[in-house]
Each structure stands twice: as structure tokens, then as C-alpha cells.
Amino acid sequence: MATAPNVDEEAVTHPLLSTDHELYLRRSSTSNVTSQVAIVGANVCPIESLDYEMIENDFCKQDWRSRGKIEIVQYIFMKWTLCFLVGIIVSLLGFFNNLAVENIAGVKFVITSNMMLARRFWVAFAVFSVYNFVLTLIASTVTAYIAPAAAGSGIPEVKAYLNGVDAPGIFTLRTFVVKIVGSISAVSGSLLVGKAGPMVHTGACVAALLGQGGSKRYGLTWRWLRFFKNDRDRRDLVTCGSAAGITAAFRAPVGGVLFSLEEMASWWRSALLWRSFFTAAVVAIVLRGLIDVCLSGKCGLFGKGGLIMYDVASEEITYHLSDVLPVLLLGVIGGILGSVYNFLIDKVLRVYNLIHAKGPGYAILLACLISIFTSSLLFGLPWLATCRRCPADAAEACPTIGRSGNYKKFQCPPGYYNDLASLIFNTNDDAIRNLFSHYTDSEFHRSSVFIFFITCFFLSVFSYGIVVPAGLFVPVIVTGASYGRFVGMLVGSHSNLNQGLFAVLGSASLLGGSMRMTVSLCVILLELTNNLLLLPLIMLVLLISKTVADAFNGNIYDLIMKLKGFPYLEAHAEPYMRQLTVVDVVTGPLQFFHGIEKVKNIVHILQTTRHNGFPVIDEPPLSETPVLFGLILRAHIILLLKKKAFSPNPALIPANVSKQFSSADFGKKGLGNEDKIENIALTEEEMEMLIDLHPYTNASPYTVVETMSLAKALILFRQVGLRHMLVIPKISGEFAIF
């Protein structure tokens, strides 16, 4: 049988929960697998796979043979053109997101600060919480009712797609728009969520929509863009889009390319590396030009937040062997905290799933309750901190009047500032900048930093999973920065590293412990901080934290993919797979077609199975012995039925019946636009006719012998990007296909 990653229902859920939880595995046709909260325990719909294999039937062969140099140059040129367009659009979207967040959140903080200056504390709290409540209500409502696929980070969905999983609805125009609107509203509403993950998803949506020529459903299509009619080219473009998303979020072009290579893509080659780098470079250049415009004061409150690099650059960074011990401690604790963080998110998502299963109204109610709790916490905690006298040598105005700055006045008298409010009563970007800042070792009290760390740790856990677009990068960075700064305070004068550098290393340790990436995170942090001198210490922290955390559980994105039921193929095979052969796991009976098949038989098999590929076998009298001719896809068979490419009997099948088709007809349509067998209307007379499947069959499918180990088959599936594999017997002369 043709085996593929799109496994049956038991295979999707069985490895995740024990038999004691069978009650939670019952499925319902109303479930939405694309929602961030459609976790195992919900009723997950079947998920199909993508066709990354190159089809070699008569039409595709003829198409490639007939292409001249002009067509080949045009094909290559369009690839680079689309990468350029992805870079331009994603950079503009990244700038717009930051501009919107900084101004919307900035207005909120300015109004609240003015109320605080007037000593109208209850009014300030009412304005702050209502502002956040309305923004969260907008984000959760548009997500729950318009595009549930836009909920959450989006990185697990894009990663699954690049692995070959065709999760429905993740790249539609509605998902794209809601991802932008919801992310801006959620981040501006003071929820402890990030915008980096949604930017990756947004970049992938841009790439996918351009790759298919726009959205046919909404009449936004462009014929000149409909050049890539296969999943293979679209996969490459989505990979470039994910790299552009990270670049737009952090202004880290090299880190974005490495992120798409290390974490996202299951398949890579040098040509794709060049195009990803080109896309990221376009994003970085455009953002640099836009930021220069904003620095001149033409972007409202935007200018010192969002895309500006965190200022920890220093020419005096020196460290000795004695400084390695605290760094090692940071790595170990970061690995433990990261694994605990992943464990808690896993449990919280399962609980949220039970609430979301009751309907979108309950999901919106949960998001609003989290918003009210967050607002109360953010406004109330600074009252626990004592006011501190402004330093005489402060590099900026103290206390800060307005939105940005290290010295928030809050409720303090003139000449004093509230250090906890400087961290909590701010955007996430400003909080990270305050923690990363150097030469501020006396700015924050130890208790304030510890309270901020505990608050960020648990708020980020409970905020992720509600029905809004929510990233994990920024919450983990700010939580790790507060933990690192606290450790730096404990170490004190026993280390040559200042507290700002400890904050950077703390972010690296928690990122490594939660996301389990090394190279890409290292480069992203270096590009964020603009300090190459930190390279050895960041490398050490990431390696240690990842090693420690791997002993407890997997990385956060893999855990979420398992919870969502995506049949993701890991890069390595499990040890037990070495003991099994491919014939041990195939199931029957085999569904196949003859080279010349009756329409009625074809329709019956298509209606009674969900297979997407069928072996085509020639038997006497077409051949002396049974011969495997190849593999034909379900979509291609449905096309033949739709075009009525059949005849009453084999002798009357016209030789020119195939002239009504071209290779473009066999190209894949846009996302979600596949024809279904239920939509094909055939008469009784047509059901008795015959179809010659030979010209439309892939004559060179991947075929292995039955003695191949399951581990070797898995590696072949992942590295080649297969959807189907035919298993044949080893003994010569014995005909069978599994």
C-alpha cells in the first residue's frame, strides 16, 4: 500500500494519550484542528499531506522537454522576483505592526501617566484596564469567529507545513488579515505575548498567497503570479517567508535565515539558502530606511521601541575564568526553567482546550478574564515597590514622564521613581531594553526584579493558548532577562560582568531551555544586542541550557504540534524502528487501478477511501505478467473524471483524448481549492465507460523492498519529502504491492 505521513485517526492520537484517556479522543465533525487550542483531547479532523515529489508522467515530461531557454530563465527569474516581493511586503508589515503597537500602547500609557500625575489613581486604573479589555476583546473576537487558524504563534503550523503536513486554513487571506489585526491588538493590550511568532506566520502567509497567485475566493488574483503549480516550489517560498518574518521581528537577517534552516525547514539545499538570504536582506534594508524616517520624529510615539536594537553595546566587556562559573549556573537553571515552562504550557493548553470546546463565546470570555487579571496585576504590583531616589548621574530624564524610559514615576513624589513600574508598566520591548541596559547596576532593587520574573513567567504561561495571535519569543526573552538580571544581582561584585550582560545571558538560557535552538538563537541575540563580544558566553549558555532541558521534554514547538495532532516526521528514527520492517506496518487491503479501468470502479474506490495515491498495474492481456506501471494521484483522477476523458471501450479510446490536457492542468491549485469526487456528476452510461490511466500516471514512484527497516523508510520519507512509497516483495517472480 502507499504509505504516507497522513496517517489514520488512531495513529494521530494514540501516541499522545494513554488508553485511560480514550474518552477525550472521541472526534466530532465540528472541531477545528487549525485553532491554537484544538489540542489532543479535542475531536481532530484528518490532516492530509503535501506532494513534494516530482511527478513524471507523459505531460510533465513533455512540458520539460518543450521548454526553451526563455521559459527556463523566466522560471528562475520569477522565483527571485517572488522572493523580492515577499521581502518588501513582510518588511512593510513588520514596520506597520511595530508602528501600530508603539502608538496604540503609547497612547494608553500616556493617558494613564497623566492620570497618575494628577493623583487620580482609580481613574488611571479604569482607563488602563478598559483599554486593555477592549483591545483583547477585538483580538479574541476576530480570531474566534473569522479565522481560528490565526490563534497562537503560527510557528508550529508553518513548521508542520514545511514538513509536508497540509493543515487546513493556515495560509488563507482571512488568516493573514486576522493574524495582523489580532497580533497588534493583543500586544497593545498588555497581554504578555510576543509578535515574533505571528510575524513568522504572516511572512509564510504572504509567501503562500503570492505563490498561488493571490486569493481566488475574494477575487484577488494575478495571472502573472500563478507560475508555481506544485507544492515543492511553494514550500521553498514559504521557507523564505518564515525567514523574512523573523528578520522583520528582530531586524536579524542572518538569524532569520538560520532560524528557518535550524527550526522550520525539514528539507534544505544551497539554492534555497541563497533565496532565503536574499529575502532577509531585502527586509533588513527596507526596515533600516523606514527606521531612519521614524528617528526624524515622523512616526508619532514610535522611534525608541520595537525595531531599535537593544542597547548593551560596550567596548569594555571583559571576563575571566572566574566568570565562567556563574554563566554555567545560568545555563543549568535556564535549562530547568525552560523545561518547566514547556511542561506548564502543555498542561495549560489542555485545560484551555476543555473550555474552548464549549464554543467561541467561552474562548472569548477566557481571553477577557485573562486580560482583566493581567491589567490588575500590572497596575497593582508596582505599589509593592518602594520609591527610589533618582540618580544624580542619570543618562536620561528622571523620573520619566510619559511612555518610554528607565525611570517611571508612577505614584512616587518628584525626584523619585518606581523601579518595578519601569519594568511592568511598559511595553515588552521597553522592559527588555531596561533590563539589557548597561551601567544601571543600581537602578533596580533585587526584590523588584524577582517579582517581575515571577510575574512574567506565569503570565506568559497563562496568556499563551487563549484565542488571540500570541508569540512566545518576546515573553521568553523578557522572562529570561529578568531571571538573568536577578542572578547578576546575587553574584554582585564577584563577577566582571554587569547586570545588563547577565540579563542577555539569562534570555539566551531560557530561550535555549524552552525552544532548544542553538545557532539561530545565538545569532539573533548577537544581532539584537549588536555586541559580538558576547558570542562565546552566549554559545556556552545555549549549549548547556539545551542539553539540560533535553533530559526532561521536547522543545515547545514540537510539543504544540503533537498537541494539535499534526503527523510531524522527526529528523531521527526511534530505536524500535530498527527492529521493524516496512511490511510490518502497512495495512490492507490494497486499493489499486488497472491501466485501463472502468469509470464505475474508479468512482467507487474514490468514494470509499481517502487515499491520495493509487498504484496502477497492468495485467493480461496488456502484459504477459502483472507489471507495476506507476502511481496516480487522486487529484489527477478527479481531473480526468471532471474532463470526461473516457470512452465506451478500449478499442475506441481515441489517441488524441489526452490532447485536451496540458501539464498546467495537473498542477496543484491554490490552498483549499481541490476538487472533490462528490462534486463530479456522471450518468449511468458514463459510469460504464473506460479510462486509460497510462499517460497520467507517475511512471517512476519511489519503490522499496519489503525488508527495508522502518527507520530507513522514515529517513527516506523526510529527506526526500515523500508522500507515498510502494513496498514490493523481495522474492523475484512473486507479484504483490503493499
Q: Quick recap of the structure?
A:
The chain contains 24 helices and 13 strands. It is mostly helical.
Structure explained in plain terms:
There is one protein chain. The chain has 738 residues and is mainly α. It is 52% helix and 5% strand. The protein contains 24 helices and 13 strands. It has a three-stranded mixed sheet with strand order 7-9-10. Helix 24 links the parallel strand 12 and strand 13. Helix 6 packs antiparallel against helix 7, helix 9 packs antiparallel against helix 18 and helix 15 packs antiparallel against helix 16. The longest helix is centred in the first third of the chain and has 49 residues. The termini are close together. The N terminus is likely disordered.
C-alpha Rg, in Å?
28 Å
Q: How many H/I helices?
A: 24
Largest sheet: 3 strands, mixed
Total beta strands: 13
Average pLDDT figure: 82
Strand content: 5-15%
- Share of helix, binned: 40-55%
What order do the strands of the largest sheet run in, or round the barrel if closed?
A: 7-9-10
Span between N and C termini? 4 Å
Approximate shape: elongated
What structural class do you assign from the helix and strand content? mainly alpha
pLDDT under 50 segments (min length 5)? 1-45, 305-315
